[in-house]
Amino acid sequence: LRAGRPARQMPFGPDSLTRVIAVTSGKGGVGKSTVTANLAVALAARGLAVGLVDADVHGFSIPGLLGLVDADGLPPHPTRIDDLMLPPVAHGVKTISIGMFLRRGRSDEPLGAVAWRGPMLHRTVQQFLTDVYFGDLDVLLLDMPPGTGDVAISVGQLLPHADVVVVTTPQAAASDVAIRSGLVARQTGQRVVGVVENMAGLTLPDGTTVDLFGSGGGAEVAAALSHEGEEVPVLASIPLSPELRADGDAGTPVVVTHPDDPAAVAITRLAERL
Ligand code: ADP
After folding, report:
1. Boundaries of domain holding 131
2. Is the keyword Glycoprotein assigned to this protein (predicted)?
């Protein structure tokens, strides 16, 4: 990453033809990154030119979810051309993540952790948007950090015209915080285009469904974020899926590996609705 030079012009400004979609959630662990990675792959499979910015700087997980790892199991470094970086591509998705820049320790050490404050986070997100050569994109997805912290505010300033998708679980405790992230996004001028409910009912082999995390969270968030004349829909309800989880761990997105899995079907439909 570059320090101390004037910022290049932002290619995803209001005049750009690229649709920018920031995927956010109120809290961690609701499956935001898993959904974003699979959504990016599903959009690319529809023939769209897709970029994915892993803006979840402290909790980055996109390289692993997309199987973007080298022989040492570490995210690859982007190739540099002059002072532009070429994003690695996985399943047709041009991807950039802080995980690709962290210092590599010895192979028996974990990747360095990110312990940065606001200004450093802001510069990182800004450089992901200006110094990475994505080329012409139809869609740029951002995997946002959960909640309403520094990065959310930076992205709101840098991409005020972005569409926002809010991910929640069906549980009331998750939906309350999800509503707050949607409201903060809207305060920066972004448009909340829909809610994705993840971790909905798990279907057992005997055909019965267990609502492990309750039900109704998606509809609750959508209703709370709707306002005069602008209804916010529930765009998808993605069931709990052992396959989705295992494929995420393996870095082989479920929409590619098990397209008939109910969670994969729901995400593929989400890609068609967006
Ligand atoms: P977040 O980005 O919101 O922190 P992650 O995408 O990292 O959440 O997901 C948290 C965990 O939940 C991961 O282990 C992931 O595999 C799992 N997970 C996400 N969605 C589902 C689902 N629909 N069914 C089963 N496991 C899921």
Report:
1. 19-273
2. no
